[in-house]
C-alpha cells in the first residue's frame, strides 16, 4: 500500500504514454538521495524485467523527456496551419466554431500552460497524445486523431466567460 501512495504522489506527465522502439512500455521510476532530493526517470520495462541495458535505451530523466514532448506539442499548437487544418473537424463538434476561435484557444493554452495544475496538464496531454515512442536516436510524439479538435472545443469561451479546459 505504501508504494502505491508514493507513486500517486510523484507526478509523471507521460505515465502510460511512453514506449520504446521495441513496443514495450517505459515505466515511471524514481530514486531518492540521502539529501532527500528525488530524481524521476522513465525506464524501459525490458530493463526492469531482464537486465539493465537489455532494451538499448538508457534511463530517461523524466523532466527532460516531458519537456521535449511539451516543446513538440507547443510547436504544434502554435502552428498557424493547424487552425486551418482542424477547423472542419472542430466544427463537426461545434458548428459555431470559427478559425479565429480555434487559434485563440490554442494560443491561450500555450500562454497559461505553466500555471495549470499538474493533473490538468496530464489530462490535456492525454487528450492530445496517443503515444510517445523513444529510440536511441529519436523521439516521436503520436497525436490522437481528434485530440486537438476536442481540446479546441473544450477551450472555447462559453457564454461570454473565459473558459480553460475545465
SSE order: HEEEHEHHHHEEH
Cα separation of the termini = 31 Å
Helix share of residues?
Answer: 40-55%
Shape: elongated
Average pLDDT metric? 79
What is the radius of gyration?
A: 18 Å
- Report the sheet with the most strands, covering strand number, pairing sense and barrel closure: 3 strands, mixed
Classify the secondary structure makeup into a structural class.
alpha+beta
Number of strands: 6
Total number of helical segments? 7
Q: What share of the residues does DSSP label as strand, in percent?
A: 15-25%
Low-confidence segments, given as residue ranges, are 1-7, 160-166
Give me the side-by-side strand order of the main sheet: 1-5-6
How would you concisely characterize the structure shown here?
This protein is an alpha+beta fold and 166 residues long. It is 47% helix and 18% strand.
Describe the overall structure.
- By secondary structure, this protein is α+β, with helices and mostly antiparallel strands.
- It has seven helices and six strands.
- It has helices at residues 2-9, 45-49, 62-78, 80-93, 99-112, 118-128, 147-155, and strands at residues 18-20, 26-32, 38-44, 60-61, 129-134, 139-143.
- A three-stranded mixed beta sheet has the order 1-5-6.
- β5 and β6 (139-143) form a beta hairpin.
- α4 crosses α5, α4 (80-93) crosses α7 and α5 (99-112) crosses α7.
